[in-house]
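Quick one: structure tokens for this chain, please?
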Amino acid sequence: MADISLAEFFVYGCIAYSGMITLIVSTIKEVPTTKILTIARSIYMIPSMIAAAILASSGVNIQVAFMTTNNTIRSVNTTQVWTEATTQTNNIVLQSPVWQMFHYLLFAVLLIYAIQQILILFTSYKEAQRAT
């Protein structure tokens, strides 16, 4: 599991949660089940699914700062030179592993919704009957 930065966590979170909010709003509002709109809803949910999967597999560390310091030390009396490199990473550690499970759950819900929309696309005969 790779660590992600704070900006990535924010962007992926906005995308995943906006898809979930859209899904919640679609349960409240009457949504027409035409073939064209099912394609649009499925395509909109796919980035949200991917973002939720990335958040679920990212781990518990969120990188805030990554700093590398290089020092060169020269001896005054001799020609000796020492070089050292120090790397410091500041992380926000998520205290509970529930966040990973929550994002897997979001991924599963969005996946089921996308599959449902694709099945509606394949089984909707209303527009085909109107054309004849």
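The chain has a mean pLDDT of 82.
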